[in-house]
Design goal:
Distance between the termini: 44 Å
Strand order of the largest sheet: 6-7-8-3-9-10
Number of domains: 2
Structural class: alpha/beta
Radius of gyration: 19 Å
Number of strands: 10
Strand content: 25-35%
Length: about 270
């Protein structure tokens, strides 16, 4: 892990405009993600986490506008890049994994077809080579019978398996940064733990940098070296995860910790 940030966000402001009204979704957010680390971005729904994440590659909806700020990725100013330059970064250098894999996978194509398309799009590999790469990727993310799984359709897979496929797609281009937006929320507790272990494994093996977005502090406590807490579009606390978990300094962080279920004796 290096001490230099791979991703740095400075004074980011993002507004949504609709029907003559303006809503400030992100209000001066500052964030650093060091190369090779997992950073947890925590906050309730509507706190601005996902908007911040989508701003990194300017994938915001049409009603949103970045008012001001800087987004530096690997030393490049994202907000000054052309659309063509951004296309070379999306997927290839920055990949996303979203909350519900069922909505990200196309139900009419097999898992293999979708993986192969992603690999060929970014690598230009031949069909046969792309097939072999896809099988290896499924093995890497812990999919059983990975070769047979290539011929399965999304509806034939469990939620955890679908998310493993999405992670395989996300890392197929060997990105520098993986943005995982609530990747375990739709999964049961056991599968959640497996997906978090997988993210940690990939971080170590691929020297991957991960921005892990969640509403649950207990999730980032398992894998994230550092945590940033977001409230109403602002980062209100940032630091080592262990320290924030043990000695939170902001009232909002304390409330998030209080929401974590406690084990009690009867």
């Amino acid at each position: 892990m290096k001490d230099e940030p791979l991703l740095e966000i400075k004074d980011l402001h993002v507004d949504f405009r609709q029907d003559g009204k303006t809503v400030e979704a992100v209000r001066g957010a500052d964030l650093k993600v060091l190369e090779g680390e997992i950073l947890g971005l925590v906050g309730e729904s509507g706190s601005g986490k996902s908007v911040t994440a989508l701003s990194v590659t300017r994938l915001l909806p049409a009603s949103a506008e970045i008012e001001r700020g800087e987004i530096l990725f690997d030393g490049r100013e994202i907000l000054k890049l052309s659309e063509e330059q951004l296309r070379r970064i999306r997927g290839a250098q920055i990949s996303y994994v979203f909350q519900d894999p069922a909505t990200s996978l196309n139900p009419v194509f097999t898992i293999g077809e979708q993986l192969i398309e992603t690999i060929r799009l970014h690598h230009g590999s031949k069909q046969g080579d792309a097939f072999d790469i896809a099988v290896d990727l499924l093995k890497d993310v812990g999919m059983p019978s990975s070769k047979e799984m290539m011929f399965s359709y999304p509806h034939q897979l469990s939620g955890g398996m679908k998310q493993r496929v999405m992670i395989a797609m996300a890392v197929s281009c060997k990105p520098k940064l993986l943005i995982a937006d609530e990747p375990t929320t739709a999964l049961d507790v056991t599968i959640q733990a497996q997906i978090l272990e997988l993210l940690e494994k990939l971080r170590e093996e691929l020297n991957l940098t991960v921005l892990l977005i969640t509403h649950d502090l207990s999730i980032v406590a398992q894998v994230a070296a550092k945590t940033a807490v977001m409230q109403e579009g602002k980062i209100v606390e940032y630091g080592d995860t262990d320290l924030i978990y043990r000695k939170p300094s902001h009232p909002y962080t304390k409330k998030l910790i209080d929401c974590i279920p406690k084990m009690s004796r009867r």
